[in-house]
Amino acid sequence: MSRNARLFLATALIVGAAIATGCSSSKDKRVGGLRNNLTPGMSTLYQRHDDVDNSLALYFNEMDRMFWEDMGRAFYTDRPSRMTPEPIPR
Q1: Using the 8-state DSSP alphabet, how is residue 87 labeled?
Q2: pLDDT grade, residue 24 (50/70/90)?
Q3: Which end of the chain, N or C, is less surrounded by CB atoms within 10 Å?
Q4: DSSP assignment of 3-35, as one string?
Q5: Are 43 and 52 in contact (CB under 8 A)?
Q6: How much is the pTM?
Q7: Spatial contact of 48 and 41, defined as CB atoms under 8 Å apart
Q8: Domains of the chain: which residue ranges?
Q9: First vs last C-alpha separation in the chain
Q10: What would the mean pLDDT of 57-82 be, rounded to a whole number?
Q11: Residues 36, 45: contact at Cβ < 8 Å?
């Protein structure tokens, strides 16, 4: 490779690295971060992260209770036994 070709290649690499890194400052990073997420406290259009967590906790609690209620029906533990000697009021 000739000297001019090596010089051109080195210059192209340096210019390419400068273009790839660009100019930035800490202020640009803060502004860019704000532009990427304008509502950092919101998880959905109307709920905060805590609201979403509360909704999920309520959902899983209800699903857990419904599961055990279904298991009670499946194994007939949700009603009294008919084999008791005394009557059971309903």
Answers
A1: -
A2: low
A3: C
A4: HHHHHHHHHHHHHHHHHHH----HHHHHHHHHH
A5: yes
A6: 0.48
A7: yes
A8: 42-80
A9: 99
A10: 88
A11: no
